[in-house]
Amino acid sequence: MIRALYTAASGMAAQELNLDNVANNLANSSTSGFRSRRLQFEDLIYQNLIMPGAAASQQTTMVAGLQVGLGTRSAASEVIQTQGDFTQTGNPLDMTIQGQGFFQVLLPDGETAYTRAGSFHLDAVGNLVTQDGDPVQPSISIPSGATSITVAQDGTVSVTLPGQAAATQVGQLQLALFNNPGGLNSTGSNLFLATTASGEPILGAPGGSDGLGSIVQGMLEQSNVSVVDEFVNMIIAQRSYEANSQVVNAANQMLQNINNLGR
């Protein structure tokens, strides 16, 4: 009975973490560029009461054996990399990536972070920055007094200055691609950091031949969270938790019956 108690408790703990993940996905259903996560589970070690393949006699072996599992645990949280919906804003500094890739952002400690959220702004000197003031890389500066800002699909940024008919190119956005984007480290603020699991970034111009997506100006990519799917996952987690709690109650009742035998 003790084994059943701990096994069911592991299932309850796993579903608690599963519900935490669902809550985070739903909380970020309106966060630009957010990537939802899906929890993955794995079974724990098994107690071998009879080892599969053990000798049953001098000529025969056990075909199946007898193993008892000891529960489950949360193994990983998979980042879902599907494209989110696009919302038209009309703001020339709002950009989205149609396809694969991440914008590059320079953090205050000098490290490069990566994001799908393309809601950019201008700082006091005209540099293109995130909403937290971190500059976009490569650095792009918009001259004071520019009457229009145009971002082409290949990331070329051009401005129109007063008294000039032709547009002036002021820089080009560069995107980063990872062999394993699921291995990126989420740090909050819509930012990711590269890890040994994600691999080194592959840098290039948007819309290039290396698989990088193209830039769409005046639009933002919304979260890829499916609210309907998350509510279904919530119900599944709740029912799984209830089922495991019923096992705890059943094991407790059996232990109570055993204790009453001696009375």
Helical content class: 10-25%
Summarize the helix and strand pattern as letters. HEEEEEEEEEEEEEEEEEEEEH
Report the structural category.
alpha+beta
Overall mean pLDDT:
90
Distance between the termini: 20 Å
Work out the count of structural domains. Answer: 2
- Report low-confidence residues grouped into runs of 5 or more: none
Shape: elongated
Work out the number of β strands: 20
Radius of gyration, in angstroms, nearest whole number: 27 Å
Alpha plus pi helix count: 2
The major β-sheet equals: 5 strands, antiparallel
| Oligomer category | single chain
Structure keywords:
alpha+beta; 20 strands; three-stranded antiparallel beta sheet; 263 residues; 2 domains; five-stranded antiparallel beta sheet; single chain; elongated; 2 helices
Summarize the structure.
With 263 residues, this protein is of the alpha+beta class. It has two helices and 20 strands.
